[in-house]
Amino acid sequence: MMERDIRLLEALRSRFTRQPKWQALVDWQTYYEPFLQSRPGDTSISHSGPLVGDELRQGEIIDAISAGKKLIAVSGFPGCGKSRFALELARRIARDQRTWEVRFVRHDEPAVRAELRELATVNRLVLIVDDAHDCPQLVQLLTGACSAADPKTPIHLVCLMRPGGRTAVASAFATHFPVGTQMEVDLGRPSSKLVRELIDKLIPEVSPHHRDTLRRLVGDSFFATVLLCTGVAKQKKLPQTLSPKHLRDYILYQPITRAVGDVCVLEKALRALAVYAASSPVRPGDVVIRESAAALSGLSLSAVDTLEQRMLPVPDRTSALILEETCLDEHGKPTAFGQAMVRQLFEHDPNAVIRNCAGIERLLSTLTDVDLVGPVVLERAASMHAQTPSVTLGLLESSRALASRRPEVIFGLFQILEERGAVRRNPPAGELDHLDNVEIHAQSLLLRASTHRLSGVRLAMEYSRDLFIASRAVPASCGSHARHSRALLQFLDRVARYARRSGSRGAS
After folding, report:
1. Which of 287, 325, 376, 405 is spaced 20 to 30 A from 370 at the CA atom?
2. How far is CA 116 from each of CA 93, 109, 160, 251, 405, rounded to the nearest angstrom?
3. pTM above 0.85, yes or no
4. Which residues share a beta bridge with 93?
5. Are 289 and 347 within 8 A, CB to CB?
């Protein structure tokens, strides 16, 4: 039988065989649909354009999976092309490994749990999680599925993340596999040569002078390159000199204005979209987010529904541009709208707000990123006191994601809570055995933040020492005493590893 006939039979079998109705585990065509076809007023970049660079790393990953490697961690800086890399990896597997199946995992843990039962029906399954740094609990769940899978129907997990998320993902891997089991792939930063090559391929008709200007503005980001070149290519006439103001108009104001149409004015649309950007990823039909978007923008719910249909999903970097536009003034200071939005959304989903608003990256500016969340957390800490332990505990838990993103905020939070009497250095030993003890949670958060910022080690050690002494006050607290001993040993080990990594980076 000819190869063409075999392909035809395989296509027919795939077409008429009953397929699992997966919503969270989807093929690459479904996952990337918004980025592979144009829609009216689409603000996203397209992944259907030219590709630069080689396919070496894709081949290495496929070879590793063929050899039985279960876990692959792919890291890269924002804008280096992680999402496009994942798309091309899936396409290559579909082309070269026809007995494998690739599924992209949406960040919807309840839906993923419900669909895990279907995984056993696949011959060899490769699961790909983009932005895995945002969902370590989901990574842990999938790692468990990899570990428990039948060797005849293996499951492999490819996680793409920013460098700062490697620790969280590695910890999730370690819950089911020995430390260091995963294959590590570092995409690095795009070279100046590759960025210029991509610009030349995307807009060859534009003058070399304008292409030189774009090269200076995009830095080492493939994402910014595609986004800005796409905006420039749509212009009928370009000014003699391109400025950040022109580019902001091309990639933000113009496409959103086209999408909005006569629904509302641009300012209100940007504010509504900022709510979604600050809460990303948002499940379709999320009532709380939709109502918040309406309230904060001054739009009706029906207008917000229309924006949802026309504009979502919005990719990370475009979301950051929307947040920058609505939440920061021309001097880089937080706007009244930005502060009000963060205060309101922090109540609903603090992890999402911290993830998206604790460091807004400025695409078209040399200014450093701005933290919109830290001031809200510290403001709330100033209202705490010893008589509100449950409220204090809630604030500590809500701020947990700041330990890695903004460790200095955690140090300030602890000091304010201590000054307010909301956390103590010498609590009764018996209270330290309670799982909801405020001091235990404060210590855990302080230790975690200190592994990301060595300047906090002394504060964390001193507080841990005081709790350790307090736990020895009565024999009944021996369990707490042992827990503090283990916590200190684990903390010292993490600090030592962090110091070694920092030292090696400094040496290099």
Report:
1. 287
2. 22, 10, 20, 39, 31
3. no
4. none
5. no
